[in-house]
Amino acid sequence: xxxxxxxxxxxxxxxxxxxxxxxxxxxxxxxxxxxxxxxxxxxxxxxxxxxxxxxxxxxxxxxxxxxxxxxxxxxxxxxxxxxxxxxxxxxxxxxxxxxxxxxxxxxxxxxxxxxxxxxxxxxxxxxxxxxxxxxxxxxxxxxxxxxxxxxxxxxxxxxxxxxxxxxxxxxxxxxxxxxxxxxxxxxxxxxxxxxxxxxxxxxxxxxxxxxxxxxxxxxxxxxxxxxxxxxxxxxxxxxxxxxxxxxxxxxxxxxxxxxxxxxxxxxxxxxxxxxxxxxxxxxxxxxxxxxxxxxxxxxxxxxxxxxxxxxxxxx
Length: 315
Ligand SMILES: [Fe+2]
Ligand SMILES: [Fe+2]
Description:
Elements: H1 4-15, H2 28-47, H3 49-53, H4 62-87, H5 93-101, H6 119-139, H7 145-173, H8 177-196, H9 208-213, H10 221-239, E1 249-251, E2 256-258, H11 264-274, H12 278-291, H13 293-314
Antiparallel strand pairs: 1-2
The structure holds fe (ii) ion (FE2) (2 copies).
């Protein structure tokens, strides 16, 4: 049991802006909450490779293919950093992967939507990576040291992702009427799911208060969502595209955009596993894991051989 003294000392460290490191004492609930957040984040990076990986072979030019390939590889790297960072909290990578593959772990619901056209690569980079950056810039200041440090490098790569997506949108929006239509259609389909990426409303988010107190998060879901809308609307204006929200309006008094209500029924439905691609994503991850078995076995066999060599040399 955590004693009150321990909890008070811990809170004092947080309030002083100190980082918590893996070997430091921490409340069990802090550890659990971080494992949940960091593993969801790692899984999102890995599953997030699927909808875009789907378009690598169909990119319209060599330049686009190279950029998309680099981006998808970056996401694999993000997943691996984050699994390593989560392991410092005393959970093994095997356990984390198992939770993803058997469907008990969550990952960002945005990746349960299909990518139907090339313009979706633009919309995903622009909106999905754009939303991810807002969340992740905040996390560079999170109280857990290994998570904060992983985020610094990840954020640099995310801004490249966002720009490569925006550039695709810009080219399409200034292209033929059919291309502009394709860009608008992608925006129509990805706008609302992107707003959902920030999670439930603050009043429906039971962990928010404690996460803010422990400085795991420094802004609430609704604050981050507002920041995303404020940042993205002017970008849509430059593209000459229309955000599919009739209630979207600048509010002079608040100094922010007002926007319409998210379809929360759809949100919870996708979270619960009933989105358009939930099944397919899990099937694909399971197949990738099974197909990679020989690589893991070969790596273990190689390591054993090297270890045996070292033993026979020292004998
Ligand atoms: Fe990423
Ligand atoms: Fe990204």
